[in-house]
Amino acid sequence: MEAIRTRTELLLLLLIVACVQGAFVEPLQPDTDLLSFSDTPTRLPCHYQVAQDQSVVQVTWNKELPDGSEDPVIMAHFTEGIREFGHYSGRVKFESFTPITENSALLIPATQESDEGIYRCHITTFPNGNFERRIRLTVWTLPISSLEPVNLVEGQPYGVVASCRAVGRPFPRLSWDTDLPGHSQNRSNKGGAVSSYYSLHPLRSMNGKKLDCLVWHPGLQEPRRISNNLVVQYPPDPIISSPTTHWYVGLKEAELVCESRGYPKPQDITWTWRGGVLPEGASVAGEKLFFRRALQVNDSGTYECMVRNAVGSGKTEYALTISEPALGDNLLLIIIGATAGAVVLVLIIVFLIVRRRHQSKTKKLKMELQETKDEMNSLSRQASFRRLNSSSSVSRMQPDDYVLLRVDSRTKYSQMSLEPHNYRGSQSTLGGRWGPPEEVMRDEYGRPVVWSDDRESLRASEINREEEECRKMVETYVRRSNMSLDSGLPSSLVPPKAQQDDSNRHKEPDLGHLQEDNSPPGDDSIGESSTMDGQVDDNEDSSQQLSKTLSKMFYARNGILRPIENPNAILLHSHKYHKPQMI
Description:
Elements: H1 2-21, E1 23-26, E2 31-37, E3 42-44, E4 47-49, E5 55-64, E6 70-77, E7 81-84, E8 93-94, E9 106-108, E10 117-126, E11 129-149, E12 152-153, E13 159-169, E14 173-178, E15 183-189, E16 193-200, E17 211-216, E18 224-226, E19 232-233, E20 239-241, E21 255-259, E22 268-273, E23 282-285, E24 288-291, E25 301-308, E26 313-320, H2 327-391, E27 396-397, H3 400-416, H4 457-480, H5 496-504, H6 540-553, E28 554-557, E29 560-563, E30 570-571
Parallel strand pairs: 2-11, 12-19
Antiparallel strand pairs: 1-4, 3-9, 5-6, 5-10, 6-7, 8-9, 10-11, 11-13, 13-16, 14-17, 15-16, 17-18, 20-21, 21-24, 22-25, 23-24, 25-26, 27-30, 28-29
Helix pairs in contact: 3-4
């Protein structure tokens, strides 16, 4: 960038000077060297800037000859115009149409080697005289190169296998780019021609290898490469191969391949069998011999492949042996297939059996689970009924009169268990054959202890506890009600005679017919009623009626008077039942 600026400033300075006294604008130096190439345009610069009081009269281009004389090339006169001389006529011209006043540069459109030399640009001015510039022109010729390969055949003696030539000015330089084990030799001829020869002993392994020629010249930025591959011809060396390794009778699509391995590639391939024609069913397609049918035993034999090319021929043989399939092999295959099928069938059967057993076991488990759920639900309902029956008879809603009768009867029964054992004919009394003969044992509440088997000892304690709770509840209800403890009925339902008798004495009804057994409730036969010793009066009829009424409403089990279940009864939840306080 700095150099361009300096040159521009220098040109401006020269223009200013030329305007004052006149000078050359180009070339700046009196002697100038110029390089050009043949067959290319060449420009020889010459430009003189006159002063204000000067004028150019004539411009002449001359070429110096070897003997020191000059040969005119072209001339321009301010009155006579432009004129070309000798053999330069038609080959040279001024760059500008007005060379006298503007630009006097000389153009050579197609430069030749003969154009090389020293040229003079002569300027004639008035009144200051003559001025000139001297230009030395050098003409180079770019190299013209070629490579000539040699046809080689394997087995030839050592010799030249390729030659490379180049013509240029100045002389070019040649070299080889290859990996082949050979030697090169260069030669130069007059006129700028250079040749290079490469020699070696040709072998078939060298066929197709790289052998390039490189041309070096000052006019080229990089060497010119002439590509070449060595060509070595050799006769065929065939081999026979086959994709099949085991030949047997019945084999289909069998084939043999003949690889020629020669250069140039052979086109003539001949197959023979046992020295004669091929067996029936065998065909040839190029390098292949194939059988259109299944192999037979008589297809065995020696097959020969003959290959020819331009250099020579070659042949090879293949001994084909076809074996019959062994019975043992087929039998083994059958056994293996049958065994595999049996194993698969057994596995399928085992799978089905296991699946069937699994489904059966799953179904059984589901049934057992459902039965367990049903049993748990049933036990839960039975436990609920048991708690309901053992807690109190007041948990069932019936008409008021029947409720009072139940409570009164339960109270009667509880009081009867506290009386001495002077009832006869009843197994539910505390006396009799189960109790002690002389003295009755009593518990902490004054009730006689019931004698029973060891199996019922635990049940007896539970019965006593429930009887005590029920007794307290009944006594509380009796105190607050208008029921009669003697009859178990409201005073409005007691017969008049019975009411009179009750005013004099309190007679306990004979409940001996409610025996301690597990007979189902609702039986109309209550049993024999025991009467008190030494008492037979008119209230016997009332007691019988009361006993019949109570037998329809209560039954005895394990020493406890329990109400008969009524399907029309209304249940009262235990948390809504108001238990009376004991007084």
